[in-house]
Amino acid sequence: MKEALLERFIQLQRDVSEQLGAQRESFEKRQAEALDHQHKALRQGMEHVSSQLHQSQAEAARTMNERLESLANTTDKRLQQISGQVEKRLTEGFEKTTEVFGRVLEHLSRIDEAQKKITELSGNVVSLQEVLNDKRSRGAFGEVQLEGLIRNVMPEGSYAMQETLSNGMRVDCLLTLPEPTGRVPVDAKFPLESYQRMMDNEASEGDRRQARRQFAQDIKKHIQDIAGKYLIPGETADGAVMFLPAESLFAEIHAHFPELVETAQRARVWLVSPTTLMAVLTTARAVIKDVATRKQVHIIQEHLRMLSADFGRFQKRMDKLADHIRMAHDDVKQVNTSAQKISGRFVKIEKVELDDLEEDPLLPGN
């Protein structure tokens, strides 16, 4: 019994050993297959990864090349734009610089012209000084200035230049103003020598006092000459005008020689400068215009009366026209009423409404 059990145990041990060997061989085989499969899978994975790496590198290289080309194109375009803008700005800068140089040259030419004009003006001033140093030329200068002022302000027919009076004296200008003013003599005087000596700061005090006395005497003599020669009762006005062609003379007399102003007023001689003469002439022109307007008032009134009569006739004719229009409106309204009745009658005839026709008030006998 023990032997049988021992044999069975041994046999079982053998079977187990065989099974274990078979399992070991199967496991080793499977393990080898698994390792081989893993090696193949790993090799395939490595190959796939390597392929993907090559593709990624190629794609990255292609993308990099495209980006580099795009960047190069963008850079070229930008450089072209910058170059164009720089060229445009340089061109504009050159144009502006050329324009500035042209203006500078123009201003320089104007400066040259102004310098020439200044030189000519200096010569003219010297010539004017030479003219004013001569009494006769100075008198002619005052007369020309007086005539220019009067011609620019006064209307034609209101003045006469170099008019000879009944006493044989010739006045520079004779203004003809409305009554009661009448004809006003205007004479130009230009006492320059004594005035220049009086205003000369380099002269001695004694010489300046002497020139001052001489200046007063000259002005007083001119006032007396104008009053004695040009104020003629019944022919001229009771006052005359003494024209001083320089504002400085007028200002000096009124500022430092009040006695001369009083003398002129007593002699009925009014001292004027170019500015004050312009004011006097403007006032005289306004007076002349006012008198002329008043002379035309009766003509204006006559025209207004005629206009009023014309408007009255127009009003009457307008009223008649309104009556005719109203009558025509009434006639049209009546004609329209008759037309509506006739139209209604035709409608009834078309509908053969004989009974209505017999009762129609428009039928004879209705």
TrEMBL record:
GO terms for biological process: DNA recombination. InterPro entries: DNA_recombination_RmuC. The keyword Coiled coil applies. Keywords: Coiled coil, DNA recombination. Gene3D superfamilies: 1.20.1260.80. Involved in DNA recombination. Belongs to the RmuC family. PANTHER family: DNA RECOMBINATION PROTEIN RMUC. This is DNA recombination protein RmuC. It comes from Thiolapillus brandeum. The lineage of its organism: Bacteria, Pseudomonadati, Pseudomonadota, Gammaproteobacteria, Chromatiales.
